[in-house]
Amino acid sequence: MADRPGTSHGALEAIWIKRAHRGPMDPVRTARLVEGQGVAGSVDRSRRRQVTILSREAWDACMAELGVTLDPSTRRANLLVAGVDLEGTRNRVLRIGDARLLIGGEVTPCERMEEAYAGLQATMRPHWRGGAFAQVLSGAEIQVGDPVQWESP
Q1: On the chain, which terminus has fewer CB atoms closer than 10 Å, C or N?
Q2: What is the residue range of 127's domain?
Q3: Which residues are CB-neighbours of 69 under 8 A, at least 6 positions away?
């Protein structure tokens, strides 16, 4: 895992937009994060849970534990970041490119993960492996490869 929250730097590895409830996760190279709303064009967001973020390292740990290789889009998150530990980061501000996201809490893995692969839901439960949800404080255009880092507390 990356350093403790607040000291790690990483990169945005993937962006997915969900156009319909329970619909496919469409990979895109760029997206607009809209202040107070979330990822433009993506459904299933709320005032509190505008963007969902998955850590590459957490996903890889789940895959190693299960002994399988599933695409990270299986998680159905909006963003995949590498080099940044999300565990225990509630109320921290994550900067992705020029966008600023306030981490609201942990995304608890749902039964859809169990439908995707037996054992996945339970494997994702510890250490915030299911990712985090956030609100967009400052919107911006983001793209795969953008730097990801924590703002100083």
Answers
A1: C
A2: 9-150
A3: 63
